[in-house]
Design goal:
Strand content: 5-15%
Order of helices and strands: HEEEEEHHHEHEHHEHEHEEEHHEEHEEEH
Structural class: alpha/beta
Cofactor: pyridoxal 5'-phosphate
Distance between the termini: 33 Å
Largest sheet: 7 strands, mixed
Strand order of the largest sheet: 6-12-11-10-9-7-8
Number of domains: 2
Keywords: Hydrolase, Pyridine nucleotide biosynthesis, Pyridoxal phosphate
Number of helices: 13
Subunit structure: Homodimer.
Function: Catalyzes the cleavage of L-kynurenine (L-Kyn) and L-3-hydroxykynurenine (L-3OHKyn) into anthranilic acid (AA) and 3-hydroxyanthranilic acid (3-OHAA), respectively.
CATH class of the largest domain: Alpha Beta
Pathway: Cofactor biosynthesis; NAD(+) biosynthesis; quinolinate from L-kynurenine: step 2/3; Amino-acid degradation; L-kynurenine degradation; L-alanine and anthranilate from L-kynurenine: step 1/1
Bound molecules: pyridoxal-5'-phosphate
Number of strands: 17
Helix content: 25-40%
């Protein structure tokens, strides 16, 4: 497609955007009285306007029904979490019985390690990407120490090549083969938070499985962003948060995927609680744990309904659009943003460099040469919300639900102003 760096062209793109009405379905923060250009949907998605209604419904059920809301609310609380499984399964390419919502992301990764990281004397290593998201690094290190081992010997990091900004699939595969029968687990962020790279999850999962390891994915930056087929790719487990591309609010609940091949295993190690027990018997208060026949067996507590409500509101929107149109628009708007960046780079004589590889989702990470931090500040003051990562990188994620092509054009103009001023 031929792009043009003009307001008229951007407006034409918006007019032809089948998802354009969704922009009006979100609350935008304002700077200088104008809605911002919001590039941080990869960090905290904007609030859908309908979220309020879903929360109000819980509050009014609670005020009118008290404890009876568990069974007599229109959307009863005791099985409210089950409402999320089917729409969420579509977002991550799973069967509804393989998906559950509970806790928060790092908590769930720890809980999943109980089931899927079972080191033995011979097979105890974990493979991840170098410079993984810090919470994932701390989680892995503490798990390894919990099993009485040293992170330095048990954690194997796949590195980028000298002078390159991305991981090569062939290097991940080579490392998996090298570690071979010492490899207990592969756990990587499906989309890297820093450079925006999408890992080849299907190929890597197959390679890990082939050497006898378990393979899990942290989909924090992938869920609601890129195409994922967890079931068909034969992934063992995955977890993600709901507040990035899934627009469910700060610190909100996490989704998990547990491949159905593990559901019937009675000997699988797992930390258990009453919400994981068979729902028919849950209130019989018996001492025996009888697991739910699905991913809900990993549930512990009765879920925080006030957190699930915004997640359900968001999933209703994903259900309305489907992933395919979101992905289609995402590809187009990211390509347009890239075009604008390259135009600006030419006009400003090489002030920045895109470090995100071809295999990408919504995010472009841009290395700013020279006066990075002050350019970032200029953008923020002028209503462009991005984020800053040391040493000199801004991350731009035009979420397809609510960002417009006009936003991209206006961003380019502000960028040019910022660079020429500094
Ligand atoms: C955002 C993110 C997290 C955050 O974890 P929480 O437990 O929700 O705070 C963890 N891992 C990755 C890869 C992330 O991108």
């Amino acid at each position: 497609m031929m792009f043009e760096n003009t307001l008229a062209f951007a407006k034409k793109m918006d007019a032809h955007d089948p998802l354009r009405k969704y922009r009006g379905e979100f609350h935008f923060p304002k700077v200088n009285g104008e809605p911002v250009i919001y590039f941080t949907g990869n960090s905290l998605g904007l609030q859908p306007k309908r979220t309020q209604k879903y929360i109000d419904e819980i509050l009014s059920d609670w005020s009118e029904l008290g404890v009876e809301g568990h069974f007599h609310a229109d959307r009863s609380w005791w099985d409210y979490h089950e409402l999320l499984a089917a729409p969420l399964a579509k977002v991550v390419g799973a069967k509804p019985n393989e998906v559950s919502v509970m806790n928060t992301l790092t908590v769930n990764l720890h809980l999943l390690m109980v089931s899927f990281y079972r080191p033995t004397a011979k097979r105890f290593k974990i493979l991840c990407e170098e410079k993984a998201f810090p919470s994932d690094q701390y989680m892995l290190q503490s798990q390894v120490r919990f099993h009485g081992r040293a992170p330095e010997s048990a954690i194997v990091e796949v590195k980028k090549r000298e002078g390159e900004h991305f991981w090569r699939t062939e290097d991940v595969i080579a490392k998996i083969k090298e570690v071979g029968d010492e490899l207990a687990l592969v756990l990587i962020g499906g989309v890297n938070y820093y450079n925006g790279q999408v890992f080849d999850m299907e190929t890597i999962t197959a390679a890990g499985t082939a050497v006898g390891a378990r393979v899990g994915w942290d989909l924090a930056h992938a869920a609601g962003n890129v195409e994922v087929q967890l079931h068909d790719w034969n992934v063992d487990f995955a977890a993600w948060c709901s507040y990035k591309y899934m627009n469910s609010g700060p610190g909100n609940a996490s989704g998990v995927f547990i491949n159905e091949k593990y559901h019937a295993k009675t000997d699988i190690p797992r930390f258990e609680g009453w919400w994981g027990t068979k729902k028919e018997n849950r209130f019989l208060m018996k001492p025996e744990f009888e697991p739910m026949p699905n991913a809900d067996a990993w549930q512990l507590s009765n879920p925080p309904i006030l957190s699930l409500a915004p997640y359900l509101a968001s999933l209703d929107m994903f259900e309305e659009t489907g992933m395919a149109p979101l992905i289609k628009k995402r590809k187009k708007i990211v390509a347009y943003l890239e075009f604008i960046l390259r135009e600006m780079d030419r006009e400003t004589k090489g002030s920045f460099e895109i470090i995100t590889p071809e295999a990408r989702g919504c995010q472009l990470s841009v290395f700013l040469h020279g006066q990075g931090r002050s350019l970032f500040d200029f953008l923020m003051e002028n209503g462009v919300v991005t984020d800053w990562r040391e040493p000199n990188v801004i991350r731009l994620a035009p979420a397809p639900f609510y960002c417009s092509f006009e936003d991209m054009y206006r961003f380019g103009q502000l960028l040019k102003q910022g660079v020429s001023r500094l």
